[in-house]
Amino acid sequence: QLQLVESGGGLVQPGGSLKLSCTASGSTIDDYTMGWFRQAPGKEREVVSCISTTKYDFTYYLESVEGRATISRDNAKNMVYLQLNNLEPEDTAVYYCNARSTVRAADYWGQGTQVNVSS
Predict the structure, then answer these.
(1) Dihedral of alpha carbons 65, 70, 75, 77, sign
(2) pLDDT tens-digit map of 13-70
(3) How far is Cα 97 from Cα 47, in angstroms, rounded to an integer?
(4) Would you tell me how many other CB atoms lie within 10 Å of the CB of residue 29?
(5) Could you tell me which residues are beta bridge partners of residue 39?
(6) How far apart are CA 114 and CA 74, in angstroms?
(7) Within 13 Å of residue 11, how many CA atoms lie on the same side as its CB?
(8) How far apart, in Å, are the Cα atoms of 57 and each of 50, 52, 60?
(9) What would the mean pLDDT of 102-119 be, rounded to a whole number?
(10) Which residues have CB under 8 Å from 74's CB, separation 6+?
(11) By three-state DSSP, how is residue 76 classified?
(12) SS3 89
């Protein structure tokens, strides 16, 4: 079992930055593709970014955050990060950390952290 806890959310003005962190426990994240999803009020959850295991070395970004977001992972610390820059009101949502492994047939979610972008 893998437990995921997000942190780093909060209220930020448009144009500001936040760094979200996801701390994993219970197992190592080495074999998991790690992702950040978000869900805004009244909308479906969408993938913001994901990063593969170090074996495959790829990242994906939602088009609307491309160039403004950077995902990274530190397997030694069992953590994943999402740096968000030049935030827009449309980025307001609950952000969730996800760990997924097809090999392990496993899919884990954190409880989410709220990001509010408002002046």
Answers:
(1) negative
(2) 999 999 999 999 999 999 999 999 999 999 999 999 999 998 888 999 999 999 999 9
(3) 10
(4) 24
(5) 94
(6) 23
(7) 2
(8) 11, 6, 11
(9) 94
(10) 80, 81
(11) coil
(12) helix
- The single residue listed with the structure tokens 């994240």 is 29
Say which amino acid occupies 4.
Answer: L
Q: Is 86 left (phi over 0), alpha (psi -120 to 50) or beta?
A: left
Which 3-state string (H, E, C) describes 3-68?
EEEEECCEEECCCCCEEEEEEEECCCCCCCEEEEEEECCCCCCEEEEEECCCCCCCEEECHHHCCC
Whole-angstrom distance, CA of residue 54 vs CA of residue 26:
20
Residue with tokens 């998991």: 32
Sequence-distant (6+) residues with CB within 8 A of 35 are 47, 48, 49, 50, 51, 97, 98, 99, 100
Amino acid at 45: R
- Across all residues in the chain, what is the average pLDDT? 96
